[in-house]
Structures are given as C-alpha cells and as structure tokens.
Amino acid sequence: MEKRFQGAGKGEGRTSTSAEILGSNGKVEPRLREYFDRLMNMRQSLLDRRGQLGTLSPVEEANHNVNLADRASDEYDNGAMFGQFSTDQDAIFEIDEALRRIANGTYGTCEVTGKPIPEDRLKAIPWTRFSKEIEEQIEREDQAHRPRHVL
Asked: Into how many domains does the chain fold?
C-alpha cells in the first residue's frame, strides 16, 4: 500500500507519494526503512502544522483601529506565526534532502568526510548531513565569523 503525503512548495495542495519522494527506484533499503518512515512522518507533521498556520489569517485592518494594545499583540502573534512557518519550512527542506540521500544511497554518510555517521546520531537527528565533530566545527566557525558588539 502506497502512502500519500502532502507536498510542499508550488504544489501546496497536492500530495506526493512515497514513490515520488524516492524517485524512479521507489524502494527503501531495509536497513534504512526505520529512518525513511520517521522522516516521512516528521515531514507530514510539519506540513500539517504549516497548513494550520496558513489558515490562521491576519486580523483585518478594521479591527486594528479599535485598540493600539490589541494591534500590537496581533502584530506580535503574526510575527511569531510567520517565524514558526519559516522554521518549519527549513526543517522540511532538511528532511526532503535526507529523503533524497536515502533514495540515492548516500544517507548516513558525512557530506564533508565521506565517513559513516554513527547510528546513534542518525537516530537522534535523522536528517543530519554531518558527523557530530564536523557539525561542531561548522558551528564554531560560524560563531567565529559573527560580529561581536561591544558596549
């Protein structure tokens, strides 16, 4: 039985099958089935939440004229909603990339070193692209390049 999953991006209302996610092969190696299923479930949960966020429409302008405090609160809520939407979109992208790696046979391999990513790391972060050491190195380098504000 083929599962159907809501799509992201241009075909927002359309659903994608697991075969479409996997490409022409359409099969998942048995050793990767657990990761594939988890990633697909996570993806669907995020898409469902995105759909719910999308149905929450901003308060109409006429209501904003009533009270400045209400307007400020509404603006804050809308900002938080759009922030969550953006975070979810980033997570969906990483999950889709992990699903592509499952399809092309590179899942579980560090993109920098080419070495296998330990199974405990994949279980904790199934969309990871890097070993723990490389991820920490990237984070250190990223922080080293951030501007520091001195008072």
From this structure: 2
